[in-house]
Design brief:
Layout (H helix, E strand, L loop, with lengths): L1 E7 L6 H8 L5 E6 L16 H7 L3 E3 L9 H5 L10 E4 L4 E5 L10 E7 L4 E9 L5 E2 L6 E3 L2 E2 L6 E2 L5 E5 L6 H24 L3
Parallel strand pairs: 1-2, 1-4, 2-3, 6-11, 6-12
Antiparallel strand pairs: 4-7, 5-12, 6-7, 8-9, 9-10
C-alpha cells in the first residue's frame, strides 16, 4: 500500500493542487496538521480550510496534538500510519507529482525523484518503505534505518520521464514566503551541527 503523506498548516491555497496530483496514484492520502513550537503561531492547528479540503479528498487527517508539535521531526514521525512494508510518498503542499509512480520493488528501501524547483533541479529521496525502526531523527530530512541515514545518493532514481516532483513555493503569497524564510533562518543553525556530524 502506498500512502501519500503531507505536512500541512493553513495550506488551503496550495493543498488542493497537491492532493489532486496524487489522487488515483496512491492508495491512501494522509494529511498531518499543525504548527511547530519553534515557529510559533496564535493557534496550534489550522484555522483555514486545510482540514476541510483534506476531508473532501478522502484523506486521513492526523490532527495536531493539544499543543504545537515540538519540532518538524516529531510531526514527520507521525507519517508512519500504516504497516511495515507499506510505502510512503512524502510530498509538501506546495509540490506536485507529475507522471505515474513506477512499480515498486520491495528489495529497494527508498526511491528518489528529480525535483523541479523554482531556483534549481536536484534529486531528492521522497518515496520509502516502512521498515522496522524507520524514523526521523536530529534533522527534518534525516530518515534513519538500521543505524544509518537513507541518503539521496543511495536511492533508486525514478526516471524523470516516468515521474518527477514540481516545487511551486515561489507562488506563495508574500506573507507566507516571509514566514517560511524566518523559519528556515531559525532551523538552519539549529540543525547545522547535527547535519555536519552526519554529512547531510
Amino acid at each position: 500500500m502506498i500512502h501519500a503523506v503531507v505536512n500541512a498548516f493553513n495550506e488551503e491555497m496550495m493543498l488542493p493542487g497537491c492532493l489532486e496530483s496524487v489522487c488515483g496514484k496512491v492508495d491512501k492520502i494522509v494529511v498531518v496538521d499543525g504548527a511547530y513550537e519553534q515557529f510559533p503561531h496564535q493557534h496550534h492547528a489550522s484555522t483555514d480550510g486545510t482540514l476541510a479540503i483534506a476531508w473532501c479528498y478522502g484523506a486521513r487527517i492526523v490532527k495536531a496534538p493539544e499543543r504545537a508539535w515540538k519540532s518538524e521531526i516529531e510531526k514527520r514521525n507521525r507519517f508512519f500510519v500504516g504497516n511495515e512494508g507499506d510505502w510512503y510518498l512524502q510530498i509538501d503542499a506546495d509540490e506536485r507529482l507529475l507522471g505515474e509512480l513506477p512499480t515498486l520493488d520491495n528489495d529497494v528501501t527508498h526511491y528518489a525523484f528529480l525535483m523541479r524547483h523554482d531556483s534549481f533541479d536536484g534529486w531528492i529521496r521522497r518515496l520509502y518503505q516502512h521498515l522496522p525502526g524507520l524514523r526521523y531523527e536530529g534533522a527534518h530530512s534525516a530518515l534513519w534505518w538500521k543505524g544509518g541515514i537513507l541518503r539521496n545518493e543511495d536511492a533508486e532514481k525514478i526516471a524523470p520521464e516516468q515521474a518527477q516532483l514540481l516545487h511551486l513555493g515561489h507562488l506563495r503569497n508574500v506573507e507566507r514566503q516571509r514566514a517560511r524564510l524566518e523559519y528556515k533562518a531559525w532551523q538552519g543553525p539549529y540543525e547545522r551541527p547535527y547535519r555536519d556530524r552526519h554529512s547531510l
